[in-house]
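Anyone opening a protein record will find just a pair of labelled lines. A complete record is shown below as an example:
=====
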Amino acid sequence: MRRRGVLVPVLLLLSLLFVFWPWLGGSPYLVNLVTGGVIWGIFAVSYDLVLGWTGEISFGHALWFGVGIYGVALLVQGTHWDTMLALMVVALATIPLAFVVHLVSLRLRGAYFAMITFAVAEFAYLLVQNATSLTGGTNGLTGILLSPYLLSPNILYALPAALLVIVVLSLRAVSRRRAGRIVHAVRDNPTRAALFGHSEVLVKAITLSASSALAALAGGLYLAYQGMAFPDAMGSQTSFTVLLMVVIGGADSIWGPAVAGIGLYLLENSLTATTAHWSLWLGVVYVLVVRFLPLGLGGLHTRGLWPWRQRVAILQGGPAPAADQNKGGQA
């Protein structure tokens, strides 16, 4: 109890600093760069609900990112709604749409589920590319009139930053309550969970729908950040990128994917500005993390440096240290 009494105000202080640091002297360039990273952090957390919470792999998660981008763009252009209002409407509309799609897709398992999500996303991607009169085709949608307050770099940063903090803290709380335990039980042992009346398909469809809505929120914020919509944002490359972010962040963590999303976005932008071989260096980072941190960045919290110390001990010819059994789970 004493530890929790100290931890809560510390987390609150760090959260406030994270959200309001642009007003404390952040340069406009850095604020703009980190804004993109924070949005990708939200997108990574949304995919963590897929991989970490349901145990499924989706190769089409960018579909929902694209739904957010184009949904908000078309609403703002067609109705001149406030951008944040359009964002909320699109996110809410995504929930029933995603529920139906996942309810059908979850009839398949494993690699077959991954492939059906890829097929649905590719169909949507080609549809957006060819619906030139509506989406602008490969040229995308430009000149979107966003709400005036989004022209402020500080506010444009604070909105996704606040959302990321709320989402991470909310998911951390849910994971420790009955709803979270049910989702994890279905993931770990669907047969036993079914004996207690929890349908695997229904529980996973609800979780994946929440994940899709969060991805749509990230997509709408990315539209506000970029000021334009292009079909490449909902292509397969986007799905694979966010998958790697979650693997590096740690699928068994909540904050890990958020940190990985921000960090890898900043790293990629830094490398592209300094070298033509940026993809090679990103590949090196991926290999090193997978090799020395098999649990991802989140594993540093749940199990400390045990995987790394185990490898060092084995290489030195000594006995491998025992893992701390008291640690683990969502963090």
